[in-house]
Amino acid sequence: MLSQHPPRLDRKISGLNDRWRFPREHYLGDLLGLSQYSRATGVDISDELKMLDRLHIPQLQKILTGSIKRKPSQDTLADVTLECLGFKWELHQPQLFHSGTLTKLYISALSQKHTDPLRELEKLLITESPKEQTKKSPVKKIVISLKINDPLVTKNAFATALKSLYSNETILHIDDVLGVLASAHILQFSSLFKRCVSLMKDGISPCTIQPYYTAACKYNEELLVTACEKWLEMNLVPLIGKQIYLRTIPQELLQKVLKSQRLFTFNEFDLLKTALYWVYLQLNLKLQTIPIYETVLAFFGSFPKKCPFLERELGQKFLPVFQCLRLHGITNSKDLENIKHINFFPETWIVRILANHYHALESGGDMFQVRDLSTQGIRFGLLINQENKIYSEMIGVYGFFFEIKGIKHGNCSYSFSMQRIKYSEMNLPAVVYERSPVSLRPERLIKYEIRAQSLVDGNWEEFSTNTLTQKFGLIKSNNKSHSLKIETVGNPIFVTFVFIFPIS
User: Fold this and answer.
1) Residues ≥6 apart with Cβ < 8 Å to 126
2) Phi-psi bin for 86: left (phi > 0), alpha (psi -120 to 50), beta?
3) Which of 361, 381, 321, 376 is closest to 345 using CA atoms?
4) Between the CA atoms of 327, 328, 329 and 331, what dihedral angle is there, to the nearest 10 degrees?
5) What does each C-alpha distance from 265 to 168, 204, 270, 318, 502 come to in angstroms?
6) CB neighbours (10 Å) of residue 408?
7) Mean pLDDT (the chain, rounded)
């Protein structure tokens, strides 16, 4: 059997100095090699310059910008006029080659104006001597035009982008960064585009999250998309959920964040309230301030009782949002009454939630319907802002009471844990046990995980105990979870305690 060899890469000699190219390669921007190849073979290569799709613009830009070291002085006249946005912008050849779009337009204009465009481009690679620079020939301007239909591109933003062709230290203002990003995308100016993305990642806030996310999707910038998603995962409930900017969050982004395992919330009911606020703001676009929660309840309660909101034509488009919630994690009796009487959820949902709770109570807390901790676990959260040394909260689920706690040990050292509390403890707040059942089981098997996240220098630090399974008793030897110990300078720190009660 004959062995197979890779295809042989023959070369073609181009000129007396033995420059060569592989015959199957496209034009790689080697102007000197292309010129010699043209003279040696007698083939007209001018047509190569007219077929812009065949040009490897990044390689061509590298050659041209690397060969032309000089920068225009104050008395140097512009030799390229760019017509765009109703204005004429005066540019210089060396600088426009930083833009892939302007490079294409320039080569196209050059091929139409000169009978030998290859020679004109080759002149750009010849370094002028000081004597030659003093002999200035009349400037022959080339006019190029660019049509822009992107509404994000403004005159000021485009001017900033063109200014950046001359200096890497051009100041970018946060108010114009969207327009500069759009301009850099159109100009194919990658270094400026990356600068804009970096500035936007650091400037995500309740008022910028929507336009930044939309722009990131429009220009396929995955880093910015991810940054927006992670920021919203942490700040949806504690920050933006209390502001009118909640209205601007697109539904597909909201659903993606609600499904995320990194999502932070103080509890499952707070997450439900945030979703209800979002729907209310979608339906009341004239509101300029976020209302109190009772106003939201009254609004949904005003619809006829014969049909819940999510089953109405008006509410069906919001159904996927509430399918992302962990409604089984709402166990407080007052909160359950709220869900039942709001006339929002289908009756089958209400029956299933109450039936599962009844079954769990009858079985000593066993959650038969919950299997996967990461997607179904009940979540409680603490927001650590470095103002105090100890953060704690009491919670109760199916008659079992716990204290979730965070302790600051030093400037950047923390520990987080959860501890089972006796129902007879005097420091239990009334809101926890007043209308709650009490379990007398001395031990309870729990599967849990403690997570902490903080933002440091634009990057999210994530810490976790990973999934643990442990029996929690009422005596000191077995009533406390493993501690999550971290060191971070981030502020705030978002801590999530997630757990389920397995069948035991």
Assistant:
1) none
2) left
3) 321
4) 110
5) 42, 19, 7, 20, 22
6) 17
7) 84
Q: What is the amino acid identity at position 297?
A: L
Where do we find the tokens 């995980």?
449
The pLDDT confidence band at residue 386, using thresholds 50, 70 and 90, is: confident
Give tens-digit pLDDT for 101-143.
898 888 888 777 655 555 555 555 554 444 444 444 455 678 8
Contacts 24+ apart (CB under 8 A), 224-230: 224/197, 224/200, 227/200, 227/201, 228/204, 228/253, 229/253, 229/256, 229/257, 229/260, 230/262, 230/460
HSE-up of residue 307 (Cα within 13 Å, Cβ side): 8
Give the span between the Cα atoms of 183 and 189, in whole angstroms: 8
d(CA 79, CA 95): 11
Residue 10 token pair:
């023959």
CB 66 within 8 A of CB 80: no
Cβ–Cβ under 8 Å, residues 281 and 247: yes
Cα 375 to Cα 82, 337, 460, 468, 499: the distances in Å are 55, 25, 21, 15, 11
Backbone torsion region of residue 83, taken as left when φ is above 0, otherwise alpha when ψ lies between -120 and 50, otherwise beta: beta
Q: Which of 211-225, 308-322, 409-423 bottoms out in mean pLDDT, i.e. has the lowest?
A: 409-423
Name the pTM for this structure: 0.83
Give Rg (Cα) of the chain.
Answer: 33
The angle subtended at Cα 177 by Cα 187 and Cα 217, nearest 5°, is: 75
The residue behind tokens 């077995």 is 478
